[in-house]
Specification:
Helix content is about 35%, strand content about 15%. Helix 9 (about 280-285) links the parallel strand 7 (about 265-270) and strand 8. An 8-stranded mixed sheet has the order 1-2-4-3-5-6-7-8, sandwiched between helices. It contains 10 helices and 8 strands. The longest helix is centred in the middle third of the chain and has 18 residues, at about 195-210. By secondary structure, it is of the alpha/beta class.
Length: about 325
């Protein structure tokens, strides 16, 4: 089974001013003259993890990581309740990625990521297709309302006990108690009462962990396994994005998939992914002839050795392609 490359340390890093008082953390590792590749983390708000470096041969790739607004090492940090998220939207993140590309003097780059990172990759690539050489996605999402409704509602029919705990953490006085739970949680994690914020954030992550608890080959407990500040920023940003449908029109990314024509891609998706079922990856592959879909039978949302091997193979294959 293919294994990640040994750990490498960045040869450059910094905080890039992107406007609205925000500075995003970025770093580069590997070969400064190599093929540029950008790692786009999930969440939203899941920054700070650096394991994606190991998916790239450091002799072949110039590996770029960044933390999206409000999380990881980017500033200001969304764990602080006084930090506004008004200037933290999908459009802002797309602009940040493009500003980072220009800052680093990169003409075109390979994009790699999954989960929310998949949505952001697709949104960026549809806006700037000429800046993208290839795409590798592990866990396709497009953050359509139907996907959010499934993750925070529909899948509860498979996990009734855990879902009732998630639902019942919203006070009955909340009008969304029986419906728009994400909007209710968005209010709770922005409450002036710290105890309310903390309880809501931990309950949110407990639900996310319940959805992936069966993934013995992946990372059960992934969402709650965060320092307190990272957990709070993660939930605040998630609830902010999902309660606004990521500021995307319903079906926008699938509708505009024609803009990806000519960009080679590998879409890798776990058949056991309860939170993000295979349907989205399947539909995207039908709308994007340049994308190859690989379904991994033993993987859920947080991966497996087989899924990791498929990612490593796809990235290595694109690493052999000379940029045009």
């Amino acid at each position: 089974m293919a294994e990640p490359f040994p750990p490498v340390e960045p040869y450059a890093h910094g905080l890039l001013e992107v406007g609205d008082g925000n500075r995003i953390y970025w770093e580069t590792s590997g070969n400064p003259q190599g093929k540029a590749a950008l790692c786009v983390h999930g969440g939203p708000g899941g920054g700070g993890r650096r394991g994606a470096r190991g998916m790239f041969d450091p002799e072949v790739f110039r590996i770029v990581l960044f933390d999206q607004r409000g999380c990881g090492e980017s500033l200001p940090h969304a764990s602080d309740p006084s930090v506004s998220l008004d200037h933290n939207t999908t459009d802002h993140l797309i602009a940040d990625m493009e500003r980072l590309r220009a800052h680093l003097g990169i003409e075109r780059w390979l994009l790699y990521g999954g989960s929310w990172g998949s949505t952001l990759i697709l949104a960026y690539a549809e806006r700037y297709p000429e800046r993208v050489s290839e795409i590798v996605i592990a866990g396709v999402t497009m953050t359509r309302p139907e996907e959010t409704d499934w993750l925070y509602g529909g899948v509860g029919r498979l996990l009734p006990g855990a879902w009732e705990t998630f639902r019942d953490a919203v006070p009955e006085a909340e009008s969304e108690r029986g419906g728009e739970l994400v909007a209710a949680y968005n209010r709770l994690v922005n409450s002036p009462d710290e105890a309310v914020r903390v309880k809501a954030a931990r309950t949110w992550c407990a639900w996310e962990d319940a959805v992936i608890a069966h993934e013995a080959l992946g990372h059960p407990g992934y969402y709650s396994d965060k320092p307190d500040d990272a957990l709070m920023a993660f939930v605040r940003i998630c609830a902010h994005y999902f309660s606004h449908d990521a500021w995307l029109e319903d079906g926008q990314l699938l509708r505009d998939a024609h803009r990806l024509a000519g960009i080679p891609a590998v879409l890798i998706h776990g058949r056991l992914d309860l939170g993000s079922p295979l349907k989205s990856a399947w539909e995207l592959s039908k709308a994007w002839p340049d994308a190859e879909l690989k379904v991994i039978d033993d993987s859920g949302h947080t991966g497996s050795p087989t899924l990791r091997g498929a990612v490593l193979d796809a990235i290595a294959r694109f690493g052999r392609v000379t940029p045009s």
